[in-house]
Amino acid sequence: MSTVYLATMRTTPKRSLLNKIESLLKRTGINTILQRNELVAIKLHFGEQGNTAYLRPLFLRTIAETVKTLGCKPFLTDTNTLYVGSRSDAVMHLHTAIQNGFGFSAVGCPLVIAGGLRGKNGVRIPIDGEVLKEAIIAKEIVEADSLIVVSHFKAHELSGFGGALKNLGMGCATREGKLVQHSTVAPKVNPKTCRGCETCLAYCPAAAISVQDTTAVIRQDVCLGCGECIAVCPYKAIEIQWNESPDLFQKKMVEYALGALKGKETKSVFLNFLLQVSPACDCYPNSDAPIVRDIGITASTDPVAVDAASCDLVNGEESIPNTAIKKMLRKGEDKWRALYPAIDWQIQLGHGEKMGLGTREYTLVRI
User: Fold this and answer.
1) Rounded to whole angstroms, how far apart are CA atoms 218 and 210?
2) Which of 23, 44, 340, 352 could form a disulfide with 357 if both were Cys (CB 3.0 to 4.6 A apart)?
3) Is the model's pLDDT at 231 over the cut of 70?
């Protein structure tokens, strides 16, 4: 049984929510997990342009300052997205992060976009998964000495909910790794928007693309699935085939989490912020109304336990009226299933336990 710590939203003039974040980190034993002069990756989601549910930069500054008091060198990091948006390359990703308030002056440490300029700089990590035998993890995350995973806890349209496991598995993968999790086939070309400009040909490492009758064609049998063409297409004509089943998607995501933690199993801490619990992923350029009240922050050294506890805490609340949950739900009723009836969100927790990432059995300690 793992220990999960909970800092509620109740504060006093002498003990703010920021003080509680410091207390959470100390209770996880961070002072013994981190060693002096270590490079510490603080993994978060910088938020898309237009999204407002991402975590406040001040929270990250508190975490970074706590890490610095231990003589370590923290940096905030995320990987480029698979889809085309405001975070699909490192230049726009940094621009978006700073625009959303994550500049050095606000967070007190550098920002590093892991995986390189276009999200293809990764390390192939051997894993003994049920589905996968390797995970392609962004190089900067692999090379960091320790990892603090800071997640905005929310609902998600493919996994039911998104927390520490998703932030690890999907959030630490290169573009190729993200495509492996989302799809079993190569990207596809939309002939209505493709102009045959041949930009994708220059970037395809497998020479899997040709132009036929002014339209790009991708050979499925040759494509490596790196997703490079998706990022470089100036007309957004190359699209992901979102064809993975939710059950298999969750298993792949968890196995990628296993790869992201390889070598850092005892060098990682996980914080879930149960604030503005939105009904969909933060990758959208908007944030819909929260489905439950703000609950607090959970922390643990066990990613499965911290997600399990966070799910139970959300389900232990009444739903808020006039949100994406159409029918008022009582305490104890399943909020994730109400949003996504076809998604069995328990799969990622069960598979995480099976893969040895942690346990669903936990003791909740309120601080």
Assistant:
1) 7
2) 352
3) no
